Amino acid sequence: MELADQVTDLSEVSSEWQALYKQEGDGWVLKGPEDTSGLKSALAKEREARKKLEKKMKNTQDPDEELETLRSAVEEYKTKERERGIKDTLRAAAIKSGIREEHIDKVITLTRSQFVVTEDGGIATEDGKSAERFFSGAYKKAEPIFYKGPGKSGSGAAPNLGKGQKSEQPKSWRDSVMEKSGKLTIDKIRR
């Protein structure tokens, strides 16, 4: 059944369809679609938002690449933190062993490659010596110039050459390492 657009008497329309008509003037008019301008503007806004989102999605990295970038940043951070922890441990051991404050950074730079992180998270030389033992023992004998003196100064004070050292030019720790590796040192060239 087709509905008429306009009727003069509402009784001309079946009772089930009468709700679709509204009174206008002398007759009844079939209600048309309501004002949809609000719906159209909302639809336009949603379409614009979708375009912006799609554009943004095109400009972002692939999620796998982004995840890999984040993993790499975390690894870099862990490495820096591990290195900072090693240097802090070496610094504490150097201070405790009597290395002069002005030489600590230099000593850490020179000796850093001698140390590894142990399974329990500690710091030791490759042969298992603790940093404190390393700085208090062989390194002190090899490089006494980096260490604090016995407290004496002025005329008549014996030079701080370390236990068992002769007053002749001591062999530096660096020279002994270079000698072991077979590389030439300045002292070898001079001899």
Secondary-structure blueprint:
Elements: E1 6-7, E2 21-24, E3 27-30, H1 37-59, H2 63-96, H3 104-111, E4 115-117, E5 123-125, H4 131-136, H5 138-142, H6 173-181, H7 186-190
Antiparallel strand pairs: 1-3, 2-3, 4-5
What does this structure look like?
This protein is mostly helical. It has a domain at 63-151 and 159-190. 47% of the residues lie in helices and 8% in strands. It has seven helices and five strands, in the order E-E-E-H-H-H-E-E-H-H-H-H. The relative contact order is 0.06. The mean pLDDT is 79.
Q: Compute the number of strand runs.
A: 5
Major sheet summary line: 3 strands, antiparallel
Radius of gyration: 43 Å
**Estimated structural class:** mainly alpha
Helix content: 40-55%
Mean pLDDT: 79
Strand content: 5-15%
Uncertain residue segments: none
User: Within the largest sheet, what's the order of strands?
Assistant: 1-3-2
Distance between the termini: 120 Å
Order of helices and strands: EEEHHHEEHHHH
Tell the overall outline. rod-shaped
Task: Quickly count the helices.
Answer: 7
Condensed summary:
The protein has 191 residues and is mostly helical. The protein has seven helices and five strands; from the N terminus they run βββαααββαααα.
Core attributes:
single chain; mainly alpha; three-stranded antiparallel beta sheet; two-stranded antiparallel sheet
